[in-house]
């Protein structure tokens, strides 16, 4: 096989598959609208992919239950158990037509390309997908894919969003498939379902720089021929498949020079590509060949549109248009204006002198709606041919042929006017002077096809196979199959009958849904199965399979049965005797024949045994019986043996019982039974209603029977019956009643006297057998007898009094027959005639806080104590073995004084004297809650004394922070104190209750809260600025612990206090202070009176005296500089304000030498200037202002009268004026 292409190998395999494919078992389409169990996706983009695809890697044959697949592509959802898949052969027509062949291609049911069926996944193991049911068709490897089909309940596609298949890549993609059992919601705008240009691949341009012309070949080697578009011939697409001849539905490529590519096809054929550039030769690529679907294949074959061929080019990149893909959707209803497209893509437009490419063929839209449908446009239009705008005579592309639409709805506005399957437009070239016009030989394709079905998409009901019934047998080899089909079902629905997995025929159900089918080919005797599916070829759907009934064809009759009873020559008294026997074939029907007449039928069990009891009585006399057997298939055996038997149904006379005589008594518990009966009859003796044995009457009619089982003592009836030889039984005999008595009476029962008695002659008594004589023994000595009455009761009183102490009595009984009983159990009792001592009352004490106080005391052990309160008996109780007793009154006592007494009665009933009286008081009033004395908000001791008031002489229980810490006794004055142990610093709360002498507890007191704080606060801070201060009275400020009390000390003496705020700030206005140095310190006392350490000292000086006036020492009266340095003297470390001509110009510091100076920052005008100065010391005290006048001289001055400068006379006068001014300023 060297040199043989793999495509050729695949072609051969495809042909073999087609020739060897088995006929389909049944139609594939039975999933209806799906199960609705996929979660609807959120559709967030255009062309969103929802299908998962996988290439089938091994050939498939009918009956296969597993598929080998390659890697998955498309959506992220992996193929998994429970998924619905569609198996579809995408390409690979068999046989492949020659290139350019114009013979019509018919897609019929035997053509594998486009064939599809649904399968359901059970499991996925690696690359193996296991199926729930076997495949129905054969499929070729590598050209077949599986597509996961989502099953939605409802699906919404928003505006500007859409679903699309993956691009067909040669092995997977191109198919958008889904089911919606509810409603599909769409919106306008872009197509909601878009398979446009996602089908068969287009021809790609081949660069031809050879300059060759005149090419004409249907298969023209590249680069003289451009690539053909892809069609349904799998082996004829690729970079080496070039030339103008089309390949099935794929358009041919252009050839040299610059002819156009042919259009792809589907149902409509593709258009011819435009003419060549070299002489306008009609050598454009031929259009793809249109397909014809037969009526039987229109539903079970789906194909994509063919790709357009590429135009011939010398360097262009204009590829042909891809064919439209496949949209497969079945939905309950469609709402909205969304459109759907499976259009072919347009061919590529060429530039320069290149030919343009052909458009792609329209794809397939399979859209079936069960109810109402509204929609936008639904199109499977061929793509336009490519055009050229270069102005050269170059071939435009041919148009793609129209696709295919299959549409069905129940109602709604979605209808034919919105459907389009027309061809695209042929391309044009821009040379308006071309004699061939704009199309330049390019042609449109032809239109596709639209098929609409009447009524909504049906989901056919599954038929029911009624006969043959499951598990039945028949001897009819051409039996009639019958069943029902539930209404409603669409017109044209038939029922296909499948026997042993093979469809043997079909039947048309009547209006009521009943159907039947009788085959002409007989079945072999064996077990068989029958099932059925409903098929509607008009709708292209079928139902799920019916029930499967197993039945057996059996044409062999069974062997003759055997009659066993009645036995031949036997005698019976049953005029409806059971007929029994055996049959060779278990489960066969046995017919019983008596006196030559059929009397009934019965069925042989699994062991072959049968039994039949007739309902009509036979007359006395002889009768013959025989039988035949019929198996489950209806085959009848030969006749059985014949048994003759005699019926005798007349009973004998009743026998007579003679002994034991009626009313007799006997101590023989196996007495003889005797009597008379019909001679030779069998007598059954019945005692106490139960047969005890049989005997035979002798020739004289006498009979005798002695039992072996003894009778129980008591009365017994005896009777008898007689049965003759035919088995007839007489009426019952007379009944004799007799009594058997062989037992002594039972030992008497002693019930008196009680355990203690207070009399020396107590009554002794009990029970014994009725009417028996009872002998009484006291302390082992017979004391006398008594007779039991009819109820068995007896009593006996000793004639001689008994002494105090323990006594014992027992007895025996003798019945009327003289049988003596065993000795009774001894009864022990005590004779006690002495009264007990008086009891004692020990509790309650003098005071109780209960209205039903427990009363406790002592008395004679086991005596009954009667308790009296305030003279009234309030109860009884028993002293225990130690003599202790207790009682609780049942009625509440009032508050106040009460008296209790008690008496005791011993076990013999002797009553003692009363106890001494015990007095007590009932007090149930709670004392008032204690009142706690406050400790203040804070304390600085860890062992405070808790004090308060409460009811005098009560006990106070103190709780600290919710925990009881101790008690205190309240003084007669009502006051109390409780010292605590060391407490932790922090908040605490104290409560208390008081308990009075009676034990009554008061309510809880109102709590008091306090804080324990034993830590001294931090030393306060003084925040005022240190240094010289001119005020005699100051406001000192600082920080300390929040809310603490700050004590301020000036020069070591307390000057006053201040309270820190919640934020810790404090201030204190001081009294007037003397001039000079001072020091402030402070301490802080917190709320608990803890005092801090002394703060850091704050030193300052009080200086309220103004400094001496500053002196200006320069310039003198005249300054020769326009920026003279002004200097002077003043108090050391003071600050001097400098003013020029009434304006403050600066502040300067006085140095350690008491000198200051200032230089103006700008030139001064020539003439007089006044500098004023004020000194301010560190405390802020200011001196008197001092003025100093000086004059700024001009460096050169003239003497003319017109001069603007001052004359010498003027300067002399100015000098004089300054001197006079200084004199005035210094005068006092």
TrEMBL record:
Residues 658-682 are annotated as: Disordered. It comes from the Bacteria. Coiled coil: none annotated. Residues 570-648, 665-742, 757-833, 847-923, 939-1014, 1031-1103, 1121-1186 form the Bacterial Ig-like domain. Residues 1-26 form the signal peptide. Pfam families: Big_13 (PF19077). Residues 662-682 have a biased composition (Polar residues). Keywords: Signal. The keyword Nucleus does not apply. Transmembrane segments: none annotated. The keyword Disulfide bond does not apply. NCBIfam families: Ca_tandemer, gliding_AgmC_N. This is Large repetitive protein.
């Amino acid at each position: 096989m060297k040199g043989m292409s793999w495509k050729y190998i695949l072609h051969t395999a495809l042909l073999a598959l087609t020739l060897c494919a088995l006929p389909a078992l049944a139609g594939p389409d039975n999933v209806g609208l799906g199960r609705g169990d996929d979660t609807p996706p959120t559709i967030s983009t255009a062309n969103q992919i929802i299908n998962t695809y996988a290439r089938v890697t091994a050939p498939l044959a009918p009956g296969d239950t597993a598929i080998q697949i390659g890697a998955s592509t498309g959506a992220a959802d992996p193929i998994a158990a429970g998924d619905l898949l569609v198996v579809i052969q995408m390409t690979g027509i068999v046989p492949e037509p020659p290139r350019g062949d114009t013979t019509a291609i018919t897609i019929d049911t035997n053509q594998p390309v486009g064939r599809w069926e649904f399968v359901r996944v059970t499991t996925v193991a690696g690359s193996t997908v296991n199926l729930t049911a076997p495949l129905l068709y054969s499929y070729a490897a590598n050209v077949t894919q599986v597509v996961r089909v989502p099953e939605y309940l409802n699906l919404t596609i928003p505006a500007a969003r859409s679903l699309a298949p993956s691009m067909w890549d040669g092995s997977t993609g191109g198919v958008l498939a889904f089911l919606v059992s509810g409603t599909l919601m769409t919106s306008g705008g872009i197509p909601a379902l878009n398979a446009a240009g996602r089908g068969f691949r287009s021809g790609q341009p081949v660069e031809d720089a050879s300059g060759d012309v005149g090419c004409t070949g249907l298969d023209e080697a590249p680069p003289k021929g451009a690539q053909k578009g892809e069609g349904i011939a799998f082996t004829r697409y690729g970079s080496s498949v070039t030339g103008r001849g089309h390949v099935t539905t794929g358009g041919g490529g252009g050839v040299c020079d610059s002819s156009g590519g042919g259009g792809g096809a589907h149902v409509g054929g593709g258009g011819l590509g435009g003419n060549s550039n070299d002489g306008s030769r009609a050598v454009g690529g031929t259009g793809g060949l249109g397909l014809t679907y037969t009526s039987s294949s229109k539903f079970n074959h789906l194909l994509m549109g063919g790709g357009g061929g590429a135009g011939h080019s010398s360097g262009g990149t204009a590829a042909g248009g891809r064919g439209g893909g496949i949209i497969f959707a079945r939905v309950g209803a469609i709402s909205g204006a969304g459109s759907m497209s499976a259009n072919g893509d347009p061919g590529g437009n060429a530039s320069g002198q290149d030919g343009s490419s052909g458009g792609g063929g329209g794809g397939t839209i399979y859209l079936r709606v069960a109810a109402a449908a509204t929609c936008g446009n639904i199109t499977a239009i061929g793509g336009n041919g490519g055009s050229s705008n270069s102005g050269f005579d170059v071939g435009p592309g041919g148009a793609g042929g129209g696709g295919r639409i299959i549409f069905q709805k129940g109602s709604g506005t979605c209808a034919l006017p919105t459907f389009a399957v027309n061809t695209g437009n042929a391309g044009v070239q821009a040379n308006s002077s071309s004699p061939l016009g704009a199309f330049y030989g390019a042609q449109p394709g032809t239109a596709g096809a639209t098929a609409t079905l009447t009524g909504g998409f049906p989901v056919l009901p599954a038929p029911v196979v009624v006969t043959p019934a499951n598990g039945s047998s028949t001897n009819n080899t051409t039996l009639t199959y019958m069943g029902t089909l539930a209404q409603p079902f669409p017109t044209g629905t038939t029922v296909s009958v499948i026997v042993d997995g093979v469809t043997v025929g079909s039947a048309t159900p009547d209006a009521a849904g009943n159907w039947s089918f009788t085959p002409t080919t007989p079945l072999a005797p064996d077990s068989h199965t029958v099932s059925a599916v409903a098929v509607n070829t008009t709708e292209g759907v079928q139902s799920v399979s019916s029930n499967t009934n197993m039945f057996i064809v059996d044409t062999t009759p069974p062997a003759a049965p055997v009659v066993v009873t009645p036995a031949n020559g036997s005698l019976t008294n049953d005029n409806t005797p059971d007929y029994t026997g055996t049959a060779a074939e278990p489960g066969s029907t046995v017919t019983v024949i008596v006196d030559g007449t059929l009397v009934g039928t019965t069925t042989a069990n699994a062991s072959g045994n049968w039994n039949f009891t007739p309902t009509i009585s036979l007359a006395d006399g002889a009768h013959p019986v025989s039988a035949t057997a019929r198996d489950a298939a209806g085959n009848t055996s030969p006749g059985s043996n014949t048994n003759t038997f005699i019926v005798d149904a007349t009973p004998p006379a009743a026998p007579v019982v003679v002994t034991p005589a009626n009313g007799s008594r006997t101590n023989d518990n196996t007495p003889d039974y005797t009597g008379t009966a019909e001679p030779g009859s069998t007598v059954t003796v019945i005692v106490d209603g139960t047969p005890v044995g049989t005997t035979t009457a002798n020739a004289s009619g006498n009979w005798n029977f002695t039992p072996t089982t003894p009778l129980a003592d008591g009365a017994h009836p005896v009777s008898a019956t007689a049965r003759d030889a035919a088995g007839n039984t007489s009426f019952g005999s007379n009944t004799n009643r007799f009594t058997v008595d062989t037992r002594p009476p039972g030992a008497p029962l002693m019930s008196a006297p009680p355990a203690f008695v207070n009399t020396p002659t107590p009554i002794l008594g009990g029970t014994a057998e009725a009417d028996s004589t009872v002998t009484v023994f006291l302390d082992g000595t017979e004391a006398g007898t008594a007779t039991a009455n009819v109820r068995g009761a007896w009593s006996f009183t000793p004639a001689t009094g008994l002494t105090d102490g323990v006594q014992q009595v027992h007895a025996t009984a003798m019945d009327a027959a003289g049988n003596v009983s065993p000795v009774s159990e001894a009864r022990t009792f005590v004779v006690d005639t002495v009264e007990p001592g008086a009891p004692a009352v020990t509790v309650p004490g003098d005071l109780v806080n209960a209205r039903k106080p427990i009363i406790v005391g002592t008395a004679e052990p086991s005596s009954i104590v009667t308790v009296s309160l305030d003279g009234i008996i309030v109860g009884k109780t028993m002293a225990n073995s130690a003599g202790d007793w207790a009682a609780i009154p049942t009625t509440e006592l009032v508050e106040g004084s009460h008296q209790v007494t008690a008496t005791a009665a011993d076990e013999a009933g002797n009553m003692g004297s009363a106890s001494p009286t015990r007095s007590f008081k009932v007090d149930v009033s709670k004392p008032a809650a204690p009142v706690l004395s406050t400790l203040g908000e804070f304390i600085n001791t860890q062992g405070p004394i808790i004090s308060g008031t409460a009811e005098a002489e009560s006990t106070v229980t103190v709780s600290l922070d919710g925990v009881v810490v101790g008690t205190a006794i309240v003084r007669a004055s009502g006051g109390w104190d409780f010292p605590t142990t060391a407490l932790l610093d922090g908040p605490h709360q104290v409560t208390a209750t008081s308990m009075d002498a009676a034990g009554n507890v008061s309510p809880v007191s109102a709590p008091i809260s306090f804080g324990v704080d034993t830590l001294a606060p931090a030393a306060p801070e003084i925040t005022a600025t240190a240094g010289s201060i001119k005020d005699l009275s100051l406001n000192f400020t600082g920080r300390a612990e929040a809310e603490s009390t700050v004590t301020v000390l000036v020069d070591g003496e307390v000057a006053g206090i201040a309270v820190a705020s919640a934020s810790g700030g404090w201030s204190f206005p001081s009294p007037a202070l003397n001039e000079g140095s001072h020091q402030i310190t402070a301490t802080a006392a917190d709320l608990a009176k803890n005092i801090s350490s002394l703060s850091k000292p704050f030193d300052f000086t009080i200086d309220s005296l103004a400094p001496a006036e500053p002196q200006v020492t320069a310039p003198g009266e005249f300054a020769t500089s326009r920026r003279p340095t002004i200097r002077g003297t003043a108090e050391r470390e003071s600050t001097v304000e400098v003013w020029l001509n009434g304006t403050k110009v600066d502040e300067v510091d006085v140095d350690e030498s008491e000198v200051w100076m200032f230089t103006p920052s700008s030139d001064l005008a020539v003439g007089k200037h006044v500098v004023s100065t004020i000194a301010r010391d560190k405390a802020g005290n200011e001196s008197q202002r001092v003025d100093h006048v000086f004059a700024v001289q001009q460096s050169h001055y003239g003497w003319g009268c017109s001069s603007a400068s001052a004359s010498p006379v003027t300067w002399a006068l100015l000098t004089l004026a300054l001197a006079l001014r200084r004199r005035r300023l210094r005068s006092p």
